[in-house]
Amino acid sequence: MIAGAGLAVWRAPGPQLRSAILHFAAGVIFSVVAVELLPDIVQHHAPYEVALGFGLGVAAMLGLRTLTQRLEKQAAAAPASAVVPATTAAPLPWGLLVAIGIDILIDGLLLGIGFAAGAKEGTLLAIALTIELLSLGLATAVELRDGGHSKGRSVAIVAGTSLMLLLGAGIGTTVLRGATGNVLEIVLSFGLAALLFLVTEELLTEAHEEAETPLLTLAFFVGFLLFLLLGMVA
């Protein structure tokens, strides 16, 4: 994420490249879900636990979306009602930063869930989320620069926000350490729903803001195939 912010303040990528990165990240995460998490969940044959965990995951992500949309609206309305003196530093977009922080915290929890399922699943998910966070770092730094923040301050803010990933991963690995049976099934199903929501409602939705081209669509399937093959040989 810090690398993405550094790239953005040095030379921001064009919209087509950013859309390609989002497509690729979506394909990677979808591959991890289909190849690694889903078979482990189906293998245990616990439909009630799966339904509970999956429902909680969908509810959590819908609640997160509602919260972030509300914060973004508040942040967008704030400049219109406040006059900032020229000598004062540009105000921080707290709504955006809180929304991103919550999103990263969820990513950290999902990372903990992945390692709870196994080292292989956790490693693949870590790589997939790294690609997603690269794109998120790019987008956040560009937004901060557009808001009048300096290059150094933009990177520093992104770096501070990225610490939420470590917090989420720490919580995930601590709480989930030693979890087995039905508890693990609920947790994995929660992560399954959250990751599917992330792919379909966040990454691909944002990626489709640019006009689709065959190469952009291909990026999704390249990401999926790459981690499908990696999962087979790892």
Quick recap of the structure?
With 234 residues, the protein is mainly alpha-helical.
Detailed description of the structure:
Residues 80-87 have low confidence and may be disordered. Helix 5 runs antiparallel to helix 6. It is globular and about 55 Å long. 85% of the residues lie in helices and 0% in strands. The protein has 234 residues and is mainly α. It starts with a helix and ends with a helix.
Q: Which H/E pattern describes the elements?
A: HHHHHHHH
Mass-distribution shape: globular
Calculate the mean pLDDT score and round it. Answer: 80
Total number of helical segments?
A: 8
Our estimate of the beta-strand percent is: under 5%
Total strands: the figure is 0
Protein name: Transporter
Keywords: Membrane, Transmembrane, Transmembrane helix
Identify the notable features of this structure and list them briefly:
234 residues; mainly alpha; 85% helix
Reconstruct the topology from this structure.
Layout: H1 2-11, H2 15-43, H3 47-81, H4 94-117, H5 119-146, H6 151-176, H7 181-207, H8 214-233
Helix pairs in contact: 1-5, 1-6, 2-5, 2-7, 2-8, 3-4, 3-7, 4-5, 4-6, 4-7, 5-6
Organism: Hymenobacter nivis
Keywords: Membrane, Transmembrane, Transmembrane helix
Protein name: Transporter
